[in-house]
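Hi all, long-time lurker, first post. I run a small reading group and we've been trying to get comfortable going from sequence to structure in the token notation. Rather than ask abstract questions, I figured I'd post a concrete chain and ask someone more experienced to write out its structure so we can walk through it together at our next meeting. Sequence below, copied exactly:
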Amino acid sequence: MKKISLSLGALGLSLFANPAFAHHPLGGKTPSTFFEGLISGFAHPVIGLDHFIFVAAMGIAAVLIGKRVAMPILFVLATLVGAGIHLSSINLPMAETMIALSVATIGWMILSGRQISVKIYAGLFAAAGLFHGFAYADAIFGAETTPLVAYLFGFGLIQACVAMAAGYIVVDLIGKGVKAMDNMPARLSGGMVAGAGMLILGEQAIAGIFG
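-- Answer (accepted) --
Happy to help. Here is the structure in token form:
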């Protein structure tokens, strides 16, 4: 129980992270070198509250459905496509809303403890990846080829690492690898993720009304 409390406490603290820098790892500066592109790519999915929570939850879900490697790869590929869409100046409407909705959705799916079809999870990861990747591209839009490639590599690699680490820690290490319905650490994490998604949606709604 102590390990569970520490793990969930850390996730809870992450909910208070400042989302203002979510799309600006270098404080709004467009990367101009390979190193800046790589650092920015590493940072974006970690300092962006909505992105980090989704990627971690995706890793947890991937382990629960027995696709701990395939699902993160699918999501990463989808984010690369989403970034390419943005860099091609094609708009994805309501991107921030869809990102927040994806966080709430995956949280509820994990919280339910149900054996949800792998195809449904794959569809969620593919669709969510497009919107998350679209948002990632904000930080690199207009950059030269070298920092752009470094950025794409960086955010792809860090997402895979976060997802696999989260899945291992929550499901295997703390949850002892038990099935979804009985894996309480995973389900509690899912509840926190769902709550975070609803909170982000609420903040967006309030901003839309009073902003």
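A couple of things your group might point at:
Residues 1-22 have pLDDT under 50 and may be disordered.
Helices lie at 2-14, 34-47, 49-64, 70-87, 95-112, 118-136, 145-174, 184-210.
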